[in-house]
Amino acid sequence: MNEGVHHQVRDGVRRSGTADGADGLWSGSWVAERLGVELLGDDRLTDLLGLALRRNPKRAHLLVSNVLGKHVPQSPSVVYGYGFELGRRVRELLGADEARRAVVLGYAETATGLGHSVADGLGLAPYLHSTRRPVAGLAPAGGFEESHSHATSHLLLPEDPALLTGDGPLVLVDDEFSTGNTVLNTVRDLHERYPRRRYVVVALVDMRSAADAGRLEEFAREIGARVDLVAAASGAVRLPEGVLEKGQELVARYESESAATGDPSSAAASWPVARFPAPLEGVAARPLGARGTARPAPTGPHPDDNRAHPHLTRIDLRWPEGLPDGGRHGFTPAHRERLEKALPAMAARLAEALPADARRVLVLGFEELMYAPLRLARELEQITDVEVRYSTTTRSPVLAVDDPGYAIRTRLVFPAHDNPADGPGERYAYNVAGAGFDAVVAVVDSTADTPALHAPDGLLARLAAHTPQVLLAVVPSYAPELPHAPERPSMLPEPLRGPAFSSYAPEEVGWLLQDLSDVTLEAPTEEREEAIQSGGAHYAESLPVEYQPTEQYQELFHSALETSAARIAQAVGVVTETVLAERSPRPALVSLARAGTPVGILMRRWAQHRHGLDLPHYAVSIVRGRGIDANALRWLAEHHDPRDVVFVDGWTGKGAITRELAQALEEFEKSDGITGFDPEIAVLADPGSCVRTYGTREDFLIPSACLNSTVSGLISRTVLRADLVGPHDFHGAKFYRELAATDVSVTFLDAVSARFPEVADAACAQAKELLAADRSPTWEGWAAVERISEEYGIHDVNLVKPGVGETTRVMLRRVPWKVLARAGAGSDLDHVRLLAEQRGVPVEEVADLPYTCVGLIHPKYTRGATGADGKAVTV
Fold first, then answer.
1. N or C: which end of the chain has fewer CB within 10 A?
2. Residues 62 and 85 placed together within one structural domain of the fold
């Protein structure tokens, strides 16, 4: 084998023609005329490339590819065809044997899709692309610098490090070679770590100077390896003296003009966003609307500028489970086979979601996520008569000039929405505004499906101003399995589900618990209280005997449910809309078992009813003084982005669980190094003013607080006892199958859900008002508890249980002392009065009570159990 560089350029790729909207004029002429920049070489270069200006101190001009699918919307068949054909040429160059041993490496962000398409053409090789998105705990297998880029550092993060250790050919794919520095840096870094005999460098265009080409040839001889080059076209860029300074001056002048005239697309943008003439007669810029409907064009700020857009069409692609979303961590031939089988069905779902009258559609990818959107777009193009175009968003800041001789005609500016490691910043979509798209399908990975994406200044809102319909398809972000061996078992059990565990339907909730139904854990209330107060047991080590309601009490429950169902339904709507707008557009609901679980199910049902979302919902255990189940958190982190997890509870009292959760998550982050869990609890009712996310702050009867397991799926309180729950186990609970005859769990859910349609408008309006209001916790409930504790001579806030829900718990499973009721509380306290009568507990009316009622636990049984050691029953 001969060492050195071998060039291969030939006319084997179909030509794209000029870019859309070029009006027959080369899209580099504007820059060429003003800066004297020239393209020399193949006559096809002006078909493949245009020119633009960028804000970059290292290089003034930007070669804008018409066939890459990054800055210029193009037919996905053209984009994919160029990469695939280049891959075929590499396969022909290497031969079948060498091709089987090759690995293809693409460059982030612009060439991730191109590299993947080359790997498809090669057919037999696994694919990896560099990334600027680090993964905690995953050590890079390599890295390099892209010297001319605005974001220079690249990481190589293969899930299987062996991907780079073989001695077969390494195929390096970039969109263009301008100087060859990036390729040199890559080969230098990888050859030191994983030396091999052959490299193949692939690009759409090779624009290196003779001197730059000589440097690569010299380097190849130096390392004793063969380097082949394969390009669709080659040439050179002739830059006149002083071009960098002239380009910067030109950009500065346009920036100044833009600042003077204003940029309607983004208050944060300083560069102009040019507008094409409307290409489709009668098509006005409209905000997001329901499928097939048009809403009036806005004349000012977006009408829903305080929340995410409620009518966004979200498409469930049903992406194959476990299939990587791209090559960031490696993509094997087996992955490719799975994708090919799934593409037709996924594209069909896209086609079904498009407006019936759509004639021109853009599939818009997201930064490094280029390949999955490209393949979806190409499949869509093949199965429909719609004119499909494909491009992606980008980090690259480029000047937009509305001139047919300029490659970047328009620019949309929006904030980064994937919480990038290098901090927030602007992102861009080029040549989308004014291009006459009847619909835009935004395809992002789940890491990028954040509130920032859905914000009033986010990408979706920016698109909505320029197309009648915006659709969103989310591809699950692939999380590689970390290579280290944890001390705990790597596989935690899957959640328990009904009907095997609980009376809830299996899709309503997954319980991250272990089943202790066969263990006797119950003890009489007074006996438990004595054991706890003596220090002999923690409250979570046993269970109270389940209260069996009398016929009179059951009638009271049903009456209360009928009275309050609409009120509860509205509070469910308010808290769910708040979560979707502020926390995550597709949250994983995690209820605190068990009081939070009915609320979590109702929130899930609301999201289905109002938005068509199928949200995951789990129930976990949290124990006062011992924190949240850490194994449950580990399971959640393995299956979901912790940033999408929203903890749910029924109500707040004085805020003890709110504090407990915050402390537990802080300790978990230190012990496991897993970040992203938000301690902010979403609750149905927040009478204590302890949280920001709530449905109401009124203290009223929530019927699910009236009962124990028979309104909570027949599940007991959670149990944490060393002889039953090991260090690698979930906390435990019991399933009381024997109480099925009196179970009203589903009855409660159905009664509330049935009221969703009648309260929907009011709930959404109230949520919008709350989103614009100051909801900072005042902790006034805590202050009231402290005052009551002193006034009644208790001197221990843990003995004071404020609110209807907490008072009911005291009556059902503790030794109550007395109940304080707000004067004139009415029917909200009928069940409390009945329980107090049955247990011989006095009810004292208080004029200035901030809660509807407060339950006081009898001091005789609580000394030591609910004092400073934290052993209080709050769950």
1. N
2. no
Are the beta carbons of 445 and 434 closer than 8 angstroms? no
pTM tops 0.85:
no
Question: Tokens 């053409």, residue?
Answer: 121
Q: Is residue 632 part of a domain?
A: yes
Residue 638 within a domain = yes
Q: How many domains does the chain have?
A: 5
For tokens 């004092």, name the residue. 867
What residues contact 270, with CB distance under 8 A and at least 6 apart? 255, 258, 259, 263
The amino acid that residue 67 corresponds to is V
Q: Are residues 609 and 754 in the same domain?
A: yes
Let me know whether 673 and 759 are in one domain: yes
Dihedrals phi, psi of 487, to nearest 5 degrees: -70, -30
- Cα separation, 407 vs 22, in Å, equals 8
Domain shared by 386 and 349, yes or no = yes
Strand 682-685 relative to strand 693-696, pairing: parallel
Structure tokens at 599: 């609320």
Convert the pLDDT of each residue in 420-453 to its tens digit. Answer: 877 788 999 999 999 999 999 999 999 999 989 9
Domain coverage including residue 331: 311-475
Q: Are strands 313-315 and 588-592 parallel, antiparallel or unpaired?
A: unpaired
| C-alpha to C-alpha distance for 413 and 418, rounded to whole angstroms | 15
Q: For a pLDDT cut of 90, what percent of the chain falls above it?
A: 46
Amino acid at 122: L
Give the up-direction half-sphere exposure of residue 202: CA atoms within 13 A in the CB hemisphere: 33
Q: Is residue 481 part of a domain?
A: no
pLDDT at 275: 34
